[in-house]
Design a protein that fits this description.
Blueprint: H1 10-14, H2 19-22, E1 25-29, H3 33-37, H4 41-52, H5 59-67, E2 70-72, H6 73-78, H7 80-85, E3 92-97, H8 114-126, E4 128-129, E5 133-137, H9 140-150, E6 157-159, E7 163-167, H10 169-177, H11 193-196, H12 200-214, E8 215-220, E9 223-229, H13 233-244, E10 250-253, E11 256-259, H14 264-271, H15 279-290, H16 303-312, H17 317-322
Antiparallel strand pairs: 1-2, 1-3, 4-5, 5-7, 6-7, 8-9, 9-11, 10-11
Helix pairs in contact: 4-5, 8-12
């Protein structure tokens, strides 16, 4: 019930930054959208004056920013109602970080979308946030999806024999704010409430990204097992609760969250549309599972209703067990 009807915006995430860091972030409007909206010089001066009020910055400096279709984030956030009322909030094109606004321009989605949520899940599992770079192991399948996703950020991937990386302090700070912490995250990884409260389709993308990184599916005798692996107990505990919202039960065993075999089909349905790297493995194991004669669905019904059904069939629990139900 706490899930949002509309995805969180990137602007909401930037408010998680410290005040000093917010002053280093600049937002850039598409084309001449801002200049077109403020055609009169008197209106431009009035807006610049309202933004400068209470701030240690001159009106002319703000006018210069506006004329170049850009504004420091902390000033934009102060007067965001003006921009929202004119529909300018959704025309943000690039974000940059740097004390003069001349830093590398990063293209980010206005709303959290499926690709970005998958990226968050993938980096949570198999990535590393250095504070300056986002790094992943240089493995063929992982490298291909990393190139595809980061291309939309307007960033180049740098690679060597062992790893691939994108250099962006802004992306690193965004991930850090969402608890994909800088430096060693293995035991500190967590799931931010912003992620937990997104729409179901976005959470599915996040889970698929994590499973593609640190998930596994394997067969032991006749039992197929899904597992999400992490050294962070806090992460696994929240993941267990998150999966319960999809009626998927699991148990934490050391550094893995293992899905109950009765809920394998539900887990497959949850992940399959957004998986990339491990999609074929899941389809291979679950195809065999679906043809297993012992496979059945679990249906939860109220106790009083269950007793009513038993009475109608002239059955009791002992007889039910004897029938193997």
């Amino acid at each position: 019930n706490r899930r949002k009807q509309q995805p969180t915006t990137m602007l909401d995430i930037l408010t998680l930054f410290s005040k000093d860091l917010q002053k280093e972030v600049y937002i850039h409007f598409k084309g001449d959208k801002l200049r077109e909206s403020i055609k009169q010089k008197t209106e431009l001066r009035k807006l610049a004056k309202s933004i400068a009020k209470g701030e240690n910055i001159s009106i002319n400096t703000i006018r210069s920013y506006l004329q170049r279709n850009m504004l420091p984030f902390y000033l934009f956030n102060k007067t965001k109602d003006f921009f929202i009322n004119r529909g300018l909030d959704s025309t943000l094109d690039y974000y940059s970080i740097g004390k003069t606004g001349g830093g590398k321009k990063i293209c980010l989605p206005f709303y959290l979308d499926k690709k970005f949520m998958y990226f968050l899940g993938l980096i949570s599992a198999d990535g590393h946030n250095t504070g300056r770079e986002i790094v992943i192991p240089n493995i063929k399948k992982l490298r291909r999806i990393f190139y595809e996703i980061t291309k939309q950020f307007n960033l180049e991937v740098r690679e060597n024999k062992n790893q691939c990386a994108i250099a962006s302090k802004l992306v690193c700070e965004i991930l850090h704010s969402l608890w994909i912490t800088k430096h060693k995250k293995a035991r500190t990884l967590d799931i931010h409430n912003i992620i937990l409260t997104q729409k179901e389709e976005l959470i599915k993308s996040y889970l698929a990204g994590f499973f593609d990184g640190d998930g596994s599916i394997y067969k032991n005798n006749k039992t197929v097992t899904f597992a999400f692996c992490s050294y962070s107990n806090k992460f696994l505990s929240k993941l267990k609760t998150l999966l319960l919202t999809f009626s998927i039960r699991s148990s934490i065993q050391k550094t893995a969250l293992k899905i109950y075999s009765e809920d394998n089909v539900k887990t497959k349905d949850l992940l399959i549309n957004d998986l990339v790297i491990k999609k074929k493995n899941v389809q291979k194991y679950l195809t065999k599972l679906n043809t297993n004669k012992n496979n059945f669905d679990i249906v939860f019904i109220p106790k009083c209703k269950f007793e009513e059904i038993l009475n109608k069939k002239n059955l009791n629990l002992k007889q039910l067990y004897e029938k193997g139900a």
